[in-house]
Fold Class I SAM-dependent methyltransferase.
Amino acid sequence: MKISSCLSINPVLVLLLVLLSGATACQAQTEQTKSAVYSAKTPAPGGTGKVYMGREIARVIGTGGGGWLDRSTRQEEENSLRAIDNMMLQPKSVVADIGAGTGFYTFKVAERVPEGKVYAVELQDAFINTLKKRKQELKAANVEVVKGGIKSINLPDASLDLAFMVDVYHELEYPQEMLQAIYKALKPGGKLLLLEYKAEDPDINIRELHKMSVAQVRKELEANGFILYKQVDALPIQHFLMLEKK
């Protein structure tokens, strides 16, 4: 008896095996593509060693830096009120302060949107507790404190008129994933504002990895579906770059 005559080949089973094999290969290729988004290097001072589109991601400033965020000279140094004036806020605007920290911007913005809402999105628990305490002290009913993730802001799709990050973007551990999450959370025509210390100015006394150039911001944001909508050059030490989802 020939061996071949003992085998019963089920064509449906063969097709299923082929499809599963193709799916596994496709999944592996997708995972490889994702991992290729980021590369690694020897960390520079203040850096993580993780690189995105040619830029080393900076280490996160922990909750020990809360005093720096609330320093008495901040308004004079950065002119935060001018930045807020240029946010194009309306009374009913729905806004997210991503990486809200101690709420230095959160509660100022909340005053400008009395019929709207401000989501104070924060990852670090100590800052979350501070935000909740300040919300109670200031009786800011239109502020909602949200626990964010390293890849998500945990807000509903198409819910925001404006999302902003103040000296935060350069520290995001997963910038591509976060930009995609923000993109989904913005309404059609929604805006994303980045305030970042000017890398082009060597006289600004901030660590290099905690500064960004206009060119680098545009490179990364445009690769993720955003286009430059408004640039304000009147701030003393920060870029004001407002982008719109395509």
Remarks:
- Residues 10-40 form one domain.
- DSSP finds eight helices and eleven strands in the chain.
